[in-house]
Amino acid sequence: MSFQQGLSGLNVSSKNLDVIGNNIANANTFGSKGSRAEFADVYAAALGGTGISQVGIGVRLATVAQQFTQGNITTTDNSMDLAINGGGFFQMTDGRNPVTYSRNGQFKVDSEGFIVNNGGLKLLGYAADAGGTIQPGQAVPLQLPTGGIEPHASTEIAMEFNLDSRLATTDTAAPGAPRIDFSNARTYNNATSVTVFDAKGQPVALTYYFQKAADDQWNVYITANGATIGGTADDPQPVETMSFTADGSTPTPDSITLDVPASTNAQGAITLPIPGIEIDIAGATQYGSAFSVTNLAQDGYSAGSLSSIAFDASGVITARYSNGQSKSAGQLELATFRNNQGLQPVGGNGWQRTYSSGDPVVGTPAQGNMGAIQAGALEESNVDLTGELVNMITAQRNYQANAQTIKTMDQVMQTLVNLR
Predict the structure, then answer these.
(1) I want to staple 294 with a disulfide (CB 3.0 to 4.6 A). Which of 7, 110, 160, 266 is the partner?
(2) How much of the chain, in percent, has pLDDT values that exceed 90?
C-alpha cells in the first residue's frame, strides 16, 4: 500500500497555507499583489499502458501564480505618494543591479534630490532641461532641482480696459503750465498700475494716468516708481495719445513701445532700465460706462526658490516656485510586460524581469496601455482578506483529510501485519 497520495496532499496543503499566510501578512502592504497556489495531479508513466484504470499517485504544486489585478486606490495627504490607475510598473534602480519594477508608489526625496522608495532605489524617468522642456530618450534617475528659478525681465504687457466716454476733458491746463499734476486727481480722469521687473528681478511700479484730451482722444502718462516717463518732473508729457473710433470700439494705436528708465524704489535702491516693453492696448474701449480694467498682465518675474512639486496624470513633475512660476522638472516612465506572471518577485514590493516575462515595453503614463498617475494616493494590496480567511479554513480541512488517509492506510497495514 502507498502513503504517497496522503503525503503529497499534506505537502501541497502545507504550501497552500504558506501562500494564504503570505497573502494575509501583506494585506496592508501598498502595491502588493496576492498569489494563489495552483495544483496538478500526478500519474505514474507506464510504457504501453492503456491508463484506463490507472490510479493517480498524488498531487503536486504546479505553480504559485501572482494575481496582478488592480488594487483599490486610497488617497493620502502626501504629494509624493503615487498610484498607477491601470497597467504598468514604476521603474527603479540602484545603479548596479537590474531594474526593479513596482506598483508601490511610496516615494521620498533623498539628500541629493533623487526620488527614491523606502529601499533607496531611485525612480526612473525623463529629465528636463533648464528651460523645463522634457528630454525623452533613455530613462535616468529623476532628480528634483535644488536651485531657484532665475528672474526674467518684463518684455510684454497686456491691458484691457474701458475709458468712460461720458467724462469731461481734463487736459485744460493754461499755456506754459504743466498739463498734469499726478498729485491732483482733477488733472486726469483715471489711473491704474502694474508691477514689472528688471533684469535682476527688482520690481518697478508702473502707474498709468489717463487724461481726456478731447472727444475720442486720451493722453496716456506713465510713471516708474513715481518718476515720470516722458517730459520732465516739472513738465510731464504723455507717452502716447490714444484715439478711438466713433463707436469707441477700436483704439489707435493698438500698442505702445515703452523704455522704462532706471528709477529709485521705495527702499532707496536703483533699479535697472527696462528697454522695449511692448504694451498691447488693442483690447481698450471707450464706452459710456464706468472706468474698469478687465485684464492687466505682464511676463516678467523675480527670482524664486523651489516651494513644492506636483505630479499630473501623465507623470510630468511640475516644480513650483515662490515667485508664482512653475516649470517641468521631469516625467515618469512606466513599463509593461506581455506576461506579468513571469516576473520574479524580489521582495521590497518589487519584481524583476525574466525570460518568461519578456522584455519591458516602456512609455509615459496615460498613453497606450499605460495607466494614469494619481498623485496623493496609493494602490492598496489586491488581497481579499475575507476570501483568504475562508481559503484558510478550506486548506486546513484538506490537510486534516489527507492526514486521515495516512491514518487509514496505517490501520489497514496493521491489519495485514496481524494476519497469521
Answers:
(1) 160
(2) 72
